[in-house]
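Readers of this paper often ask what the protein records in our data store actually look like. Such a record has a labelled line for the sequence and another for the backbone structure tokens. Nothing more is needed to write down the fold, since each code stands for a local backbone conformation. The record that follows is passed on verbatim for readers who wish to inspect the format.
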Amino acid sequence: QAINTARAQILAGMADVVLVVGADAAPKGFFAPAGGDRPDDPDWLRFRVLGATNPAYFALYARRRMALYGDTPEDFALVKVKNAAAGALNANARYRAPVTAEQVAASAVVADPLRLLDICATSDGAAAVVLSSMEFARRHGAADPVRIRAVSTVTPTYPKAVLDLPDIATDSAIAAEPAPETFRASIARAAYEEAGIGPDELSLAEVYDLSTALELEWYEDIGLCAAGEGAKLVREGATALGGRIPVNPSGGLASFGEAVPAQAIAQVCELTWQLRGTAAERQIPGARAGITANQGLFGHGSAVVAVR
């Protein structure tokens, strides 16, 4: 949202250069609701009445993938192994140690089937980007600057008076097939439409890996593969450094933790370094286009497409 506002100011001719900053110092464990108990807040109710904290919510996604597509905990562990390997090469990452699948499997169960190393930590952190007009950049010596081609910010509509979602099953033993396009998929679609490119033109992607299983979900939502094929990509190494379409070459939230206002900006920083060719040991050769994707409180989501 901050990047979108800054970009709009520049495109409207109201500013030449804008600094965008996000920072947070997060408490350990679960976030305490601001202002104390809030019985009219859906997240307060989710935590206190249902006991559905974020790890439990992530685990429901994981269980659904296992029921629908045959994903396994071993597939989820491969996501952590991949991201930890990339994070080990990133001087800005909080966690810089490689992790093995055996270490993931040996870590404590938090919300079955997800273990401690499947879930990102809360974190302190900050990120910033400087945006300018193309004219300003070129006047200051940037002959081939990284360009933001699209910013998508999508919000679901609430409330729904009836349960009309096609992926709600009447039999609790059956996981129904998802709709042709999920809300999360619409986040990326809007960005692709504005940018005039498709997922087959990407060099990399940075997605919000709040859990390992959620990263697999993003592969499908941003169009890297069809529904149910996310685990196949990670098994083949397609989304690792050196693969066909690296995802989270920064190391992702698995390597940074989540500093809520900072992390989406940090994704854009990683795109910028990769497209400039300054990402050091984790550099993707010849990177020309990338996308970020994330989703936050109440389902608000965003994506940024950057090109060189």
